[in-house]
Amino acid sequence: MRGNKFMGLLCAATMAASLFTGVGTLGADATESVTAVTGDAQSLGTPLADVRVRQALAYAIDMDTIVDTLFDGKATRATSFTSPGEWLNTDIPVYDYNPDKAKDLLSEANWDPNYTLDVVYYYDDQQTVDLMTIIQQYWSDVGVKSQFRKLEGDLAAQLWVPPTDMVNGPSEVKWDLAYAAVAALTESEFYNRFASTASNNSTVPKQDGLDELIEASNSTMDKDEQIAAFKKIQQVVAENVLAMPLYHQVCFIYTSSDLDMKGNPVGNDQFSYEKNILDWNINRDDHTLYTNGGPQEFFWYPMVNPGYMLNTELLFDKLIDADESLNPTDGMLAESYEVSDDNKTITFHLRDGLKWQDDEPLTGDDVKFTIELMLKTPGTNAVASEAMSCITGAQDYKDGKTDDLAGVTVDGNDVTVNFDKVSANALQVFSQWPILPEHCLKDADPNTLQQNEFWQHPIGSGPFMVDEVVLNNYCTLKRWDGYWKKGTGNIETIYEFASGENDSNLVKNASAGKIDYAWSKSTDDAKAIEALDNMKVEQANIRYTRCFYINQFPHEPNIK
Amino acid sequence: MASYITRKILSLIPMTLILSFMIYLGMDLMPGDAVDYLIPPDALSTMSQEQLEQMRESLGLNEPLVVRYVKWLGGLFHGNFGYSLQSGVPVSTLMKDYLPATLELTIAALLISSILGILLGVISAIRRGGALDQILSVFGMIGVAIPQFLLGLICIDIFALHMNVLPVGGRMAYQGQGFFQRLQYLIMPALVLGFSMTAGVMRYARSSMLDSMGKDYMKTARAKGIPEWRVNLVHGLRAALTPVVVLIGFRLPMLIGGAVVVEEVFQWPGIGTLFVKAVRSQNTPVVMMIGFFSVLLVLISSILVDILTAALDPRVKLS
């Protein structure tokens, strides 16, 4: 009954959104847009199924002021998941702070003032708590009650379980809105989750046309075509407020006055990009560069996140290099590579005489081994595992039907990867995920790869190799003479203080002159380090968006 | 006394088992499990439930609580303390790596606080009501009141950042440095931890000393013409030491987990920070091992305190 009513209230989004809300100008692709729900918000199984309620919630928040005050201007207000730049559709509707409009929309939707939104979050930093408190107040000002609670425990089960019926629901999660973040390598990480087939879509019912738009964005390796496809998706997401992007975090890069980076640009340090560190000069007698990110219990495990720590980036080479915006560029371990016209075959030509830091030869077999390992490791990042899954024979290999991944062939220095269907992000994946040594990891259980002793003292193929390791204290990397490229710089040793993802000692060490290069996303770190005479702070835009996911599937109110 | 000690040691076995099970149960009752922490929340949203279940299965997290506990206990009897769920490193290796750092710090702090606390407490009692007593009382109050992290940060600011005479943190600059080369790293954290512990010992020593100074045997000693310093130090101090020794004895468990804040502030690679991290990440084998040692140390301390009390106070008989 509820489902029928829900379905009956579906109407064309473009027209309805314009008529009811008057938001933004719909672009030329509006006819391809999705359907939105309009009518009585209280009768849809959840008031959040009504686009006017979602729009009202967006209008009610003054994100510009929040960014200026809470974040001291060191973040960017988000109008879309996509960060400002060439990938952003600037014609999408923008929900500038307008409390009167919010009240009107709520009134039109017959918003029940007694309904209390159940809002969840999982970060435990003070800034998140402050932000939640501020947003609660903004919503209260337009007559929307909300309660915020922090989730503990099995987050995946509480947040990202999709309903069995992706049209009518009911919801498999209890909350109304979830505050979350997406740290993305590619645009698809922002938008694939809105597809009705996505394994983590717990919030957005199947929308007419959206699955096709998402499929189109995933079916080309051509950057211009990808940009055009994602702009259409952005339009749909924004018009219908399928989720509510709040702000983009930026990456702060800290460098000391002792370091000369020889004009190399800084970029998105959440991933790997060509820094040309072998050309850098350090003004210290011992030619040591100080940084953080040293291992606490083990060296960062690259399957989930391949370039988060500088040591992963410097210890392991990838097949392809990337620029500071993470666009794939030249070959790295591969001297060159070619993509076939139909985008379904990539051939890598490995350099001659490559070797591992223990002098074992690095061959095409290591490349194939790494791809196979990525396929079998449960924790492999979604973008990487998606790309790997497109390789011919991937499913059979994952299912254990064969020990040989048919889609990857090795012929001397040439490694050919054949795909059953185009993997839009394959080049990005090969420019970020390192090639791992088969001779060290061939006996590793993929399910417990992170626990393998290899990560205590890894052997790589990058410009620096592990020297000393005192876990949870420091480690040193030394310049590796066997690297295929020689630089002009003078850094011989990299001294890394042990730290996790958030380094509480970063400012202290920088104050003591013991940080020459580091990065973080913390505005507090940036403010403190800016004040130091010996340090410089630069910013880089990154794909990192904080947002609310809005549960639009029917569900009982969690707060009564 | 021998039978008393034997009985006490035997009683350790059931108590250790009960307490270790309670820790295991506590870990199990916490929301979520280790897999939820192995994958960062942002990446978690892109993983399927099947993938997560596969990881749980591989790590043995899907077995019933009792089975997991018995397996852990069985391993313990065979000298296998398990593996860190985060890194796969044997817990015994972690203990070997982390425990010496913590012991180095806490033993230094315990020595500083015990010697300084008893000394200042006795002086304060002897100079009761005088200017020195007042100053030391204020000193004691500050020591009790000031949080370790604040004192630590103040010290770093003064000695490391402005005067540049001590390192800002860590335990060593390079591997292979001897104790005396590493001493510069130990000074600040040991003094900060020691200072915060000194106040308690000092206040105990002062009140205990004052108590014993009013006793008849002190008057008798003075009446026999024994010099005042000897009366105070030999007759007074010995009796006054009993409650102080009890206090110090009960601080022994702190040797393992009592320096968390100081370790964090001074980037000291000790077991305290490991323990906190292990609890947060539900790394049960690591938590169990540290918890087990702590339990054992508390129980052993209790026996030691009994023995020392009997040794110091002739009125106490162990039976």
Automatic annotation (TrEMBL), chain A:
UniProt topology in membrane: Lipid-anchor
Subcellular location field: Cell membrane
Residue span(s) of domain Solute-binding protein family: 45-154, 332-551
Signal sequence region: 1-28
GO cellular component: plasma membrane
Classification via CDD domains: PBP2_NikA_DppA_OppA_like
GO molecular function: peptide transmembrane transporter activity
Entry superkingdom: Bacteria
Matches recorded under Pfam families: SBP_bac_5
Main location group: membrane
PROSITE patterns to which the protein is assigned, alphabetical: SBP_BACTERIAL_5 (PS01040)
GO terms (BP aspect): peptide transport
Entry keywords, A to Z: Signal
InterPro entries per UniProt: SBP_5, SBP_5_CS, SBP_5_dom
PANTHER family found in the cross-reference section: PERIPLASMIC BINDING COMPONENT OF ABC TRANSPORTER
Name of protein: ABC transporter substrate-binding protein
Native organism: Porcincola intestinalis
Lineage of origin: Bacteria, Bacillati, Bacillota, Clostridia, Lachnospirales
TrEMBL record, chain B:
Statement: the UniProt record of this protein carries the keyword Ribonucleoprotein: no
Subcellular location: Cell membrane
InterPro entries tied to this protein: BPD_transp_1_N, MetI-like, MetI-like_sf
One GO term (biological process): transmembrane transport
Annotated ABC transmembrane type-1 domain residues: 99-305
GO cellular component: plasma membrane
UniProt family annotation: Belongs to the binding-protein-dependent transport system permease family.
Pfam families cross-referenced by the UniProt entry: BPD_transp_1, BPD_transp_1_N
Lineage: Bacteria, Bacillati, Bacillota, Clostridia, Lachnospirales
Chain segments annotated as transmembrane: 9-27, 105-126, 138-163, 183-205, 240-262, 286-312
PANTHER family: DIPEPTIDE TRANSPORT SYSTEM PERMEASE PROTEIN DPPB-RELATED
Organism field: Porcincola intestinalis
Membrane topology: Multi-pass membrane protein
Protein name (database record): ABC transporter permease
Keywords attached to this entry: Cell membrane, Membrane, Transmembrane, Transmembrane helix, Transport
Predominant cellular place of this UniProt entry's protein: membrane
